[in-house]
Amino acid sequence: MSQHPAPTPKPVWRAPGMPALLVLTAAGFAGFSALLPVVPLWAVNGGANEAGAGLVNGVLLLATVMTQPFVPRLLSRLGTGRVLAAGLALLGVPPLLFLLSDHLSWILLLSIVRGIGFGVLTVAGSTVVANLVPRAQHGAAIGAYGAAIAVPQVILIPVGPWLSESVGFWAIFALGSLPILGISSAPRLARVLREQEAERALQPPTGATATVNSTGSGRRLLAGSLLGPMVLLGGVTLAGGALITFAPQMSSAPAATAGGLALLTFSAAVTRWGIGGLADRFGAKPFLWPLVLVSVVGLIVTAIAVENPDATSVLLFLAGLTLVGIAFGGLQNLTLLLSLAAVKREQYGTASAVWNIGFDLGTAVGSVLIGTLAAGLSFPTALLVAAGISLLTLPLAFRRGPRVTP
Questions:
Q1: pLDDT in tens, 242-274
Q2: 79: left (phi over 0), alpha (psi -120 to 50) or beta
Q3: pTM of the model as a whole
Q4: Are 260 and 318 a contacting pair, CB within 8 Å?
Q5: Residue 404, phi-psi category: left (phi > 0), alpha (psi -120 to 50), beta (remainder)
Q6: Which residues contact 17 (CB under 8 A, 6 or more apart)?
């Protein structure tokens, strides 16, 4: 009897539902990324100081974090398609209203609305990507999902400040409405998820469960398992959020600002994409502690580069942002992978919410903390504080998580 070799699995980006998810994600994050360094500048244009500018992204991400815990319940009650469409609308419509006023209170109000939309998009997206592929391909799938997030950042974060100065704020606010274009992909994605859920309902249960359970001790173990990756992620997103928000203000060379942001986002994209396959083969743990140290070194180098506010050391500035970008991208993938590995399939929404809270809370704290310290002291001092905070997360890189059978 002849035997046929097992068919080669399709690349994860061609799995059913993944193209729709990637298009939707790219549109949503394109609008978000375009405005991330620009809305603080719009607030400065209206008379806000460094602390006020930092408050813009801080409020945006605070609203995001407050929304994220409710998203898993919304997904189960209203369905993936409706929830994602609503989130994209809340993220994409407010940018069209920024030009009505550059007063800080108006900017903060619109930022709250955008934050709610972003909270929906982030939790729903990472929940969906976990459900579309089996556990053995989670690393690669998260890499593809991360690339859909990072490629718009590579293009739009560096271009945003330049476009707002050379063309006008209206141009970048128009780009901020791109999430609206992703709404059409939501029904297609929801249809694939319904079909997959129906197929799983016909299959016998398997042993693919985490060692945690539904008892009180199991819930505590689950919380501890998710808390470690969340805090580890928060340390590096604090660094990345601070640099993305304040690079235009801490650098005296516009070309260095654009180049540094381009290198930060590009290195994050490459690392987030490339490390997924490696993590599927070797696990996430071997890569965690080196990336934490890379983040710390990158922040220290950047602090040295901007020590003289009138003469930025361009090479050091570029090197510092590149190092932070490498850690920023790699730890995003690895910590999400660890979070999903700690839970059963029906808990993916919870793991996604906790992970995204760590991401956005770290970014928000970075924006507010670095802005406040820079206003009272200096950007180099603020960056050294961020490096110290990142270093404090290093012990979490060595923690053992729960084992999950594939």
A1: 888 788 888 878 888 888 888 998 898 889 888
A2: left
A3: 0.77
A4: yes
A5: beta
A6: 128, 132, 188, 189, 192, 193, 196
